[in-house]
Structure formats: C-alpha cells, structure tokens
Batch of 3 targets.
Target 1
Amino acid sequence: MPKHDTHEIPQILAHLPLFLELAPEQLSHIAENTREKRLQKGEMLFQKGDMPRGFYVVVFGQMKLAFPSSQGNEKVINILGSRQSFGEAAMFMDRPYPVYAEALIDTLLLHIARNAVFDLLAADASFARRMLAGLSMRLHALVQDVESYSLRSTTQRVIGFLLQHGETGGQTNQNNGSSNEVTIALPTSKQVIASRLSLTPETLSRIFHDLANSGLITVHGKDITIHDMARLRQFDL
C-alpha cells in the first residue's frame, strides 16, 4: 500500500470536493481532528451495529457497504472509491451503522471526527449546503435503486450497470475505427456486482453470456468490451 505521511492530511483534505472552499484555518481545524485508517483487502472497518464517531473519506482503494443475512449471504448497498465519503447519516443521527464496511482492495481512508464536523457546520453555511447536497444525492441514488429493482428486468439492470461504467470510465477503442466500441474493467468481483444489482452470480453470468451471444459485448475476465453503446442501450427495452 502506498505511504502517506500524517502531515499530508491537510493537502489530501484540500483536494476533496467537500472541503474545496474552506478557509485555511477551517481546513487546519478539520485536519487536526482527522486520522488515517489503512485497511488490507478483506479487512473490516466496522460492523453493523457499531456506533459512529465521525465519517470516512476514501483517499484511494475501494470499500463495500453491505447488509449481512442469517443465511450467510450479503446484500451489497454500495461500492465506494476514491474521493467518496460515507457514514455521514449515521453520524448525524447518532445511531448504529445499519451496514458493515469492508475493504475490497488495499485502501486508505480518512476518518473525520464528529465534533470537528459539527463545529464547521455551525461556522460555515456553504459547508452545510455541500454536505446536505451529498446526502441528498445519496438518497436520490437509493430511490433510483428501489425503482430499478422494482420495475426493471434483470437484463436491464446489468445493461444499466455496463452503460454507466462505459460512459464514466470506459476506454474508447480506436483500432477498429468505431467510436461506439468501449472497453471497461469491472470495478470488483462478479459476485459483489451481482449482489449490488440484486442478482445471483449465476444470473449475472447468464446475462453476460446472452449479451455476448447477441454480439453486444465480449467478456475477457474482468474486461468487457461493449461493441456499440447505442445498440446496448436499445436492447431489452
């Protein structure tokens, strides 16, 4: 895992969207109440039922938020990457975490203490607005998830996932002269992605196979080539 010295915390915070507009003295106050947390792949950050003492920001790496089940399975709620934050809602409500958090790869987090956040909220209305905007976006995403699971077919969920990653992180293939062909790298294992989409791993594999047979995608391990974004978008409507 790459090394980050403690004295770099102010520089890391200054480049996070939530803290971009803070005055130097405000940033210094936050930094004084921020600690690094390093996790190895598979290491738990907190369990469902633990009490929060602040919230977290991912510097690099990948975190999974999930519900455990009595059958030993899990429901993945979110997969978080660099510059994303989590745990704010539980912190504000002063209630136990409703999920557990696990590192999917080696990860560096910043833990910002609750008291420092409350001090800044009282002093800076713009910071309060940015934090509310972040929580509102997360609520909107949750509503979209419920709508997707309720109204969209299993194939549509997978296509939506592929299109989202193709538009935000895909690499256009120039060799074949087509600007519509995009290759994406799956951000995590197919089992975790299946849980995130409320599917079984077998169903996800079957849908990938069906899309490949239809000439829409090619699967090479974690690399998936979308041959035509527009055709994929129109499939299974």
Target 2
Amino acid sequence: MELFYAKGAQGSIVTLDQEESGHCIKVLRHRIGDEVKVIDGDGTLLKCRITDASPKAAQLQVLERVEGFGAVPYRLTLGCCPTKNNDRFEWMVEKATEMGVDRIVPIIGEHSERKVYKSERARRIALSAAKQSLKARIPEITEPVAVKDFLQEPLQGIGLIATCFGNRISIADAIDCKDITILIGPEGDFSPEEVALAVQKGYRPIHLGASRLRTETAALAAVSAVYFNFIANAYASED
C-alpha cells in the first residue's frame, strides 16, 4: 500500500507538498482520477482521488476518512539518550516507530557522551517508518532536553526508568496501564542523582534482563516489551 503524507490534513481537499507531490506524480506516475491514500500524521487515513496532478502541489479530493489507522492500544513516550553514533539512534527511531511509539524525547544525561543532538533527520526517518509500517500517526520527535529538566514534566500514567543498579522490577511486571513513559540512559547509565530524582517524581526502576545492552538495543527492548504486552493481549481477546 502506497501512503502519502499531508500534515494535519483538513477539509474535503488535500494538497500535497512538493516532495510528496513529486513522489506521487513524477516517480509513481499517478494521474488525475487515480485513487491514493494519505496520512495526516495525527492518526487518520484519508482515501482520496487526484484532481490536480501538479508535481509541485498535487490536489486530492477526500473520499473517506479512517480514524485510528494502524493505531496501537496504548500511549508510549520514550525518553532516550542519543548515542555517540547518530546512525544507531536513528535506527532505533525507525524501529520504535514501526512497533508503535507516540513521542520520542532525546534526553541528555550527566553521563551522556553526546551532549548535542539535532532532531530534524530523525523526524524524516519517523515519517518514512510510519508509512512503511502502515501507521497514520507519526511520533513526535522533540528537541533534546536534560534528564533533570524532563523529569519536571508532570507524569501521566506510569513512569519507568531503566537502570543497572538498585532494587528493580522487570518491565513486564511494571506495565499496569496504557499510558507509559520509559527512560533509557546512556551506556554509562543514569547517574545516582538522576535515578533518585526520577523515583522522587514517581518513576519505578526497571531492568531489561541479565544482558548488558547498548542504549539503542535497550530502547528497542523496552518498546518491544510494551508492544507485545498489549498486542498479544489484543489478539488473545479476539480468539
């Protein structure tokens, strides 16, 4: 299934931007009268018909709207320290989007090797991954924020912080609601002060098993645990 993107598309007529129009008209050679599918980035799929085949600003008539297309039955915020190698973090963004995540926050910890991160490329990767995995919602990729500043945000649902030290529970035992925030530290782990502040703010320390994982692997292990917890339960309820 081909999916195109029109940010926050409203009304009965949708206009694709130059990049999406070029892909639709020049590369895939769609013409007036062809039916195509568009995502708005907020969870809605639009079934459309091309009315103007401009390669710079194609216009589409909306035939039908499908709410919650490709949605997962939970809300997940992932706060993750950027890796020293940008490619590893961007690979994580791609795979987390494929499974299902609503918000990815690059957090900068006291032990982080990378203190600066530009989010624009990650946003493009998330858009491509949402299309590939047939999702109408594109995760929000924020600008970087210090761990201690992120922890000042009001916690919605449950908060989990992965750490190598102290008393921890498994992530499987910790998931007990559908609104989840998970924090993944750098390969040197969060500082004791960061963990203590997180606990003070209501976060629960968790472990991801006995293996020592790279940052991007730990992030995907956590996203996978949430995904399979809810998806497995959803499929079980249908049997």
Target 3
Amino acid sequence: MAAMACAANYAWANRQIIMTLAGEAVGEALQASGSDLRMRLVYDVSHNMAKLEEHVWKGETLKVCVHRKGATRAFPEGHPKTPSRYRAVGQPILIPGDMGRSSFVCVGTGRAMEQTFGSSSHGAGREMSRSQAKKAAKGRSVAQELESKGIHVMAEGRTTLAEEMPEAYKDVERVVDVMHTAGISKKVVRLRPIGVLKG
C-alpha cells in the first residue's frame, strides 16, 4: 500500500508540473504575463488505485480494499469521503473520451454505493489493440481528419496518432449512457475536444 501511495503521489506531482508547463505555454502563446500565466486546478483525481473504505455488503458494514482499475470513485452527495467542495452535488467523475469525440463530467450516486462499491468507469476502453489501430490507420492522415473536425492536434509522430485514433476506442457516449441509465452516475456536462496533445 505504501509503494502504491508513492506511485500515486508521483503521478499527482507529475500532473501538477504538466499543468504548470501547459499554463506557461498558453500564456506565452497568448502573450500574457505574470498571474495571467497561472492555470487554476479545478479537480484532480487518481484512478487505478486501491483504497481502504467502508462499504455495506449483505447488510453489514465492512472495511474493504477497493481496487479501481480503469475506474474511479463515484461517491454520492452527502457522503463524508466526497470532497467537501463537491459534497452537496456528489463526487465529480471525469470520463475522458478519445481524440475525436466527447468527454464527460458526471457525478456519483447512492446507487453506485449499493451496486459498485461507489465506483464508475473512468473511460470507454479500447476497441482495438495498438497494433490493430496502426494497421487500420495505414494510408490515412489522422491529424488531417481531426483538423477537418476543428480539432487541433500536436503529437510526437504519426504512429502515436494512429495508436490513439478515435476508432481505437469504444464510443464513450454509449458507455456514459449505460452508467447514467443504470443510475451509477449522473451526466453533468459533455465536453467537445478542440485541442489534443499526444506524447
């Protein structure tokens, strides 16, 4: 558990550095300076984590280790472990889509506590392996396809784009609809990509 916490802290620090550098790059591009360069963190959450939590199982409250792989917490409004800032509405759930389709912000529900140990999907998951995606993208310009949809992309190379092309992933809208209909999470907002960085 200590080693996992170290890995989570490393990832958290890395995200803070990326946010700071991205803010500086945006500020430089917009010719802003000083406090205009600072990005404000709205929400940060770890996924692929195990946590010791209390959950009701067959009518009994138990302390259990919940490992969320490709999943994230979905605690409801009023839950003491929901961050205080969001306690009145429920735990925010960030569900990223792919480079060419939507992402979503949802919130956790009481039903998630009953059915999924307070967990929700953290994305749609891959439809194709990386090698399958590279084969499917052969002869195509994924960057131009995205640009034609008004999505600006910057990537390390064509291979990276091919591995991560939109069709390589399941349709996140369908995944979110299933979770919303099942009552595991509630949709709050749909986000449309306008810029993509792939390293």
